[in-house]
Amino acid sequence: MTQLIHTLEECWYLSPPWGQKILPLSVSLLEKVYLTTANSFGYCCGVEWLQGDWSYAIALNDEVVYTSASRLIGTGKLQPGIDKPVFDLGEKVVFRCNRDISKLRIVQGIHLIDDFWTYTVEWASPALTECDGKLCTSGDRRAWVTDTDLVRV
């Protein structure tokens, strides 16, 4: 039974939330963008798969604004002088965690925080419960980790 649970968890972690084909990004990481709701330019400093679509993190002056692609206009100009992330969106990695569970994961987000790239992976499988006769899953199961926490498969 334990092996079946381990296999089920491994399948869960390696099943991308976006389906079989990863959806293209509307703007690139580090691209200069125009945020229509703020009438201002900024840079895309992160992207993460949330609630069925890409959520973009935009650095505007001294703050970060999270928004959908429909509120962005890309310029095609990339911010110079910053190294690219070590891992790509959708890449399979080994998550170096201390728990006795499957360590294989998929990179579901990338963010630049204080000049360091962080990566979003699921750290726990969902806990399924029944809520008013419907199947519900547990809350946020994602973790932001650095490239030292991950190993390329």
Structural summary, described in words:
The protein has 153 residues and is mainly beta. It has one domain. The chain contains 1 helix and 13 strands. β3 and β4 form a beta hairpin.
Mean pLDDT: 87
Strand content: over 45%
- Can you give the helix content as a percent range? under 10%
Query: What is the string of SSEs from the N terminus onward?
Result: HEEEEEEEEEEEEE
Overall, the morphology is globular
Biggest pleated-sheet summary: 8 strands, antiparallel
Structural class: mainly beta
As a whole number of angstroms, the C-alpha radius of gyration is 17 Å
Low-pLDDT stretches: none
Number of strands: 13
Can you tell me the number of structural domains?
1
How many distinct helices?
Answer: 1
Amino- and carboxy-terminal Cα gap: 27 Å
Please state the oligomeric state of the protein chains shown: single chain
Task: Tell me the layout of helices and strands.
Elements: H1 2-13, E1 31-35, E2 40-50, E3 53-60, E4 63-67, E5 72-78, E6 92-95, E7 104-106, E8 109-113, E9 116-122, E10 129-131, E11 134-136, E12 142-146, E13 150-152
Antiparallel strand pairs: 1-2, 1-5, 2-3, 2-8, 3-4, 6-7, 6-13, 8-9, 9-12, 10-11
Q: Outline of this structure?
A:
The protein has one helix and 13 strands, in the order H-E-E-E-E-E-E-E-E-E-E-E-E-E. The radius of gyration is 17 Å and the shape is globular.
Keywords:
153 residues, mainly beta, eight-stranded antiparallel sheet
